Amino acid sequence: MMNTSPTVAEPDRPSLREATRVWAKIGMLSFGGPAGQIAVMHRELVERRKWISDARFLHALNYCMLLPGPEATQLAIYIGWMLHRTVGGLIAGILFVLPGFITILGLSIIYALLGDVPLIAAVFFGLKAAVLAVVVEAVLRIGRKALKNRVMVGIAGLAFIAIYVFKVPFPLIVAAAAVLGVLGRWWLPQSFPPPKSAEADASSEYLIDRLLGLGQLRHTMPSARRAVRILLTWLAIWMVPVALVIGTFGVHSVLAQQGIFFSQTAVVTFGGAYAVLAYVAQRAVEHFHWITPGEMLDGLALAETTPGPLIMVLQFVAFLGAFHHQTGLSPMTAGVIGSMLTTWVTFAPCFLWIFLGAPYVEALRSQHTLNAALSAVTAAIVGVVLNLSVWFALHTLFGTVQTQRYGVLAVEVPQWSTLHGLATALTVGAMLAMLRFKIGMGWTLLGSGIVGALSLVLIGHLP
């Protein structure tokens, strides 16, 4: 039951203009892949502005982690939708993607025309070292909130071992964690406490929780008629551009193949960007022959060190593929169209999944068994984010990382002689700046980027 007493005034919520500024800031600071992006949102929305509580933030994140596609983008859409309905979700999602899209498009053009530019690479070198500090901070912050007892710590540890050592697919880890949560609800109920009540939400210090507790967010309630309308509308939004490209250039054109292939990818990308990049690289390089292996690695490096989801590497792949292989258009025009089309079909489904499913996820929040399953999934996510942190650290701080096999085990081991001294110093400095001296993420990233550029000037080459 929700407290709808007329004597309780509705709390002031941010205007759409203010929310737009916040989402634009988050989009421009969303470096570091999903771990870094989730850290930015948690800092801005939970800790600084108190728009949403940890419990609801993690509840939304759990749902997004179960969906195909970039979970951080979907989380932004989810929270924007809760606060300002459909227009809020659109603004949050678009502004989360837009800075990365513009950056990757500009760098794709430079790359296609000039090749690798050392100065840009040096700036990104400095940014990558600072992003590692952001990712580490995310593990610490989310871990403190999600790992409330030894059982949750154990689930996180098992998830990390499963994905890092045994390379267990992410969907299987999520499924196993959910099963553990359901079983734990009955075997160890004290380790899986029920969610906070709606009455407690009405007096919460967090805005969305108060609004929900007071019954002010009616759009979060499920509606079958609205669900059908959303499904038909967003399927059309998703597919009409692909149909236009097929009708204009033919089904066998590079642009049409990209629209079809990346639309298919959008519904099978479970496990985040890292899980799907191997598949995309294989198809783009070996099957379609759009790019070379070296270009794929360059695109991944760009996506890792620019704002926006890591899956934006698909935009780079599409740009080069259309730039080099699409006939009937100038290379630049073809590249831009391919870049835009691929971005469209990659992120349009994110809005569909959230607008369609979020009301039902919110309605089920008070269901104890489901909450126990999602709590276990949250703990497993901490282990997965820790795995991303280790992966990012290895490939940021070391020049060479090799996979060592011990029977069925496969562990990435760095070559210690290739440790980057400057990258290590930048990372330590960024961690001290953010964790000890509470310097803002934007200033920390700016300083690291400047140091990276200066390193090229002072020593004449990248570290």
What does the overall shape look like?
globular
Cα Rg: 22 Å
Give, in order, the helices and strands: HHHHHHHHHHHHHHHHEEHH
Low-confidence stretches: 1-6
Count the beta strands. Answer: 2
Helix content: over 70%
Tell me the β content.
under 5%
Could you report the average pLDDT, rounded to the nearest whole number?
A: 85
Number of helices: 18
**Main sheet?**
2 strands, antiparallel
Physical arrangement of strands within the biggest beta sheet = 1-2
State the end-to-end distance. 60 Å
SSE class: mainly alpha
Can you walk through the features of this model?
The protein has 463 residues and is mainly α. It is built from 18 helices and 2 strands. The protein has a two-stranded antiparallel sheet. Helix 3 packs across helix 4, helix 6 crosses helix 16 (368-397) and helix 14 runs antiparallel to helix 15 (331-363).
Structural descriptors:
mainly alpha, two-stranded antiparallel ribbon, 463 residues
Topology:
Elements: H1 16-28, H2 33-48, H3 54-66, H4 71-114, H5 118-146, H6 150-164, H7 170-187, H8 198-202, H9 207-213, H10 224-249, H11 254-266, H12 272-287, H13 293-304, H14 313-325, H15 331-363, H16 368-397, E1 401-406, E2 409-414, H17 421-436, H18 441-459
Summed up:
The protein contains 18 helices and 2 strands.
